[in-house]
Specification:
With 722 residues, this protein is mostly beta strands.
Length: 722
Amino acid sequence: MNIFGHKLHRSKKHSSIVLTTLLTVLTFTPAHAQNPSQPGELRFAVYSNSSAEIFWDRSTDNVSVVGYEIQVNSDVIGILDATSYYSRDYMLGDAYTLSVTAIDNEGNRSTPSSVSFIGGERTAVIVEPPTTEPPTVEPPVVTPPTTMPPVAGDGPAAPGNLNAQVYSRTTFELFWDREQSELLEYEVFIDSELVDTTFGISSTQRNLTAGTTYNASVVAIDLLGNRSTPSTTTVTTPGESAPTPPPVVTPTAAPMPANAFYSIYSDTSAELFWDRAPASASIIDNEITRDGVLLGNTDGISFMDRTRTVGFDHQYEIVAINVDGERSPAAIIGTGMFIDGADDGGTDAGSTDEGTVDSGGTDSGVTDSGGTDSGATDSGVTDSGGTDSGSTDGGSTDGGNTGGSPIVSAYTPDESDIVDVESFYDEDGYDTVDVIRVDVTTVTTPGVCTVDDLSGCTFEDVLADIDGDDELKVDIPIKVVTADLPDDGSVSNAELRQRGGSSRLFPQKSFRIKLDSKEVLWRNERRLQLNKHPNERARIRNKLSFDLMRELPHLPSLRTQFVNLWIDDGEGPVDYGLFTHVEFAGKEYLVNRGLNDDDRLYKIEFFEFSQGDLDNIQIDENGEAVDQDRFESRLDPKRGDDHTIVNQMLSDYVDPTISFEAVFDKYFNKNNMLTWMAANILLYQTDAVTHNYYLYNPVGSEKLYFLPWDYDGTFHPEAELE
C-alpha cells in the first residue's frame, strides 16, 4: 500500500479499510478541545543495513485514541493503530528522523514524539518527551567483553525462562523472555566466552561439537550500561563427541574455478561453464568479467553473455569468492583478440571451446562453417533467458539483458534455505521419459458396498465413486505387478481406489494404488498415484512441469513416471492407456530425501491466509486440531499432528499489530517463495492461489516451505487483451 508516496509496511487486506475509516473520521468529525497525550518512551532498534523498527507507549485521551501518524524525515507515510512501525527501506549511512503523533476520534492531535538514527548503525535509543528542544542523548560507549564481566548493582532483571531448542548434532538455539518495559541489549556466552550480542530474544549457535555439554549464559544490558545477573542453562548436543577434533585448515584463498570453458552460440552470445567447487571451499559467489569489465555475479556454475562484439574473441575471467570474502585466482578463458572474418557465424557451440584455464595459450575459436547454434546449452535445455536450466544455478545471470550491466541474483543465501539433490530424481528406477507397464488384477466378490462394509465392492463401484467428498471411499483389493514390483505369489498385495476431485466426473478415471505392506515397496514408495488428466490431451504437462522444476534451486520437485495401466477385472487384461504417476508427498517423500519422517506436510485444500482459515484450524494445547473435519477442509495434514507452527503463523498474519514483513521473515524462506512464484508464472500455473500446493514444516523449525503440486493445467497461451 502506498500513502503519500511512501510504502506502509502493513500488507494486510484490512489495512486499507482501517486507514480509510480513520481518514474519514479525521476529515469529517469536528475537533474536540482536548488533545491526546504525547506518545511515550519513543525508542528504536536497527536490525540491519536496511531495516529498523520504532516503538512507543500508547497515548491517553478523554475520549479515544484511534491511531498514530508516522512521519519519516517530515514526510507523512500513514496512520497506524499500533505501537510500533517497521520498515526495510532505510539506506546505510543515511540520517532518519521519525515522528509519531497520536490522533483521537475527533481529529485532535498530540504533541509529536521524535527519534533519530543512522541507517545501518545497530544501536538503540530511548528519547524522553521533549520540553522545548529535544535533549541530546549520548549512548554510552561499551566495549563488548570477551568473557563475562561482573554484575552492576542496579542492573536490569535477568532474562527470564532461558531455554534451548537443539536442531542437530552441531546446532542449537537459545530463547529467553524480554522485560517488556525496557529496551535491552543481550550478551550471549557459551562456556563463559562471548559469542553473540543482540537486541532480540534468541540466539542460534552453530558449528558446535556433537555429544558435548555447553554452559550457556545470557546477560541483559540497559541503555546506561547496567548489567543483569546472568541467566544460565546447559545444553547437550546429540551424538558421540570426537576425542580429538581434526585440525582446522584455513585456506589462504578460495580455490580457482576448475575446468572452465565456453560455448559460442552466435555472433553476440556465449556461455561460460566451470566445475562446482567442493562444499569445504564454502564458495558463495562467482564474479564474471569480460575484457576487464564486470559483467555480473552468480552462485551457479554457468553464465550467459549476450553482448559479445562481432569478430572479437573476448577474454573472460571467473573469480570465486568464499564466505570469508576471500577471492580465488582468476580462471581465464579466451584471448581478447580480433578474429578476421569470424563475424559470419562465430564459434560453433558444437565444438565447445575447451580453453585451458590460465594456460597462456591463445584460443583461436573454431569458425562457424554451418550456421549459428539456436541456443541449446550443454544440458539439452534451450536457453530462453540467460539462466542455465541445466545446472543447480542459484540465479545464473545474463550479462546481456541490460547491455552488459551487471545483474545481481535475486537469491540471497540463507541458513534456512531448503536443498534438494538433483540426482535424487534419477534414482530408484526413475528416468526422464520412459513408460513402464503396470498390471492390475482385481480380487473382488460382488456384494455389499457401503460406508460400513466394503467387502462386496467391485471395480464397477470404484468407477461409480464420483463424489470424492462423501464418506464412502470405495477401496477394492487388487494384485499389482510391475517390473519394479515382481509377483510375490500372494493373492492380493494392494488396494485400488479412484482419486481426484472434479476429474471424477469424466469417463476417463484416475486411480490410487496403495500397497498393503509398509516394507515391500515400489521404488521406496507405498503409493502409485496414476493421473489420467482427461482435460489435457497431450498428457505431458504435469510431468514436464515437475521435470523442469527438478532443475530449480530452493524448490523440491516431485518424481514422476509415465505408466501404461492394464486392468484385469475377470475378463482378461484391458489396456487403460497412458497415466502419469506423481510421487505422493507423505512419509516416504520425507524418508527418501533423508528428512525427519515426523516433519509436517499439509496439502492445501482451500486456504486464503484469512481469519476464516484461522477459525477452521484451531488447535488444542497439544497442537492437535480441535475439529478435524474443519481443519482438513482448509489444510489436509499428510504428516504430523502438531499444528502449532502453521496456526501461530496465521495468528500472527491476521494480527493487525504485526507487520507483514515480520511474519514473512519469521515463518517463510524468501528464496523458496521467489522460486515457487517464478515457476508458477513461467509455467503459466494459474490454479495455485488457494490450493494446489503443499506447505512443509520441518520439526524444530518455524519455517513453512511451499512445495509444488498439480501442474496439468500449465503451458496454456496467455489470452490477448481486447
